[in-house]
Amino acid sequence: MSSGPASPERRRKLGESLVAATRILEVRHARYRHEGRDLERDYVVIAAPDWVNVVAVTKRRTIVLVRQFRYGIDDFSLEIPGGVIEAGEDPVAAGVRELREETGYAGARARLLASVHPNPAIQSNRCHFVLIEDAELQGAVAWDHDEEMEVSDAPVGEVLAWARQGRITHSLVIGALFHFEAIWRQERGLT
Question: What is the pTM of this model?
């Protein structure tokens, strides 16, 4: 049993400074003070724009997927479409845009499933999960200059199984599928 206080103490932010700025994120030192311990320290914070991940379900009850090379793991990753939310852009509108740009699909209904903090220990942004229903291929892709992906779809049950089995390993994709599965099961009377 811990001998510490019953509740952790909120730290007071004293300031922050930019360490590095890249095309997709900033690295900052944030200085915080813990009053109870009379302690001040610098922490690393990654400041990135919010992201969106899209669970796009077709009329055939399949989920639209993308397979693309990911530099962080130096390998390919099977995922759902997604990307950066532009400044001031609504998460649902960003999801609709990202789905269209990355896959050529569009849907009849779009709604927010959930919003999460990708890694609150070091990141300040949020990832929003959007559900787009009755998705259909409606046009050509419009990838960014450094995007290249394989677009496919698979039955909902298979995609959910792949997430549980480790074939899908992107944690934010798994989070989106977790939120989607609860709705999927409820709407079908499976809960």
Answer: 0.91
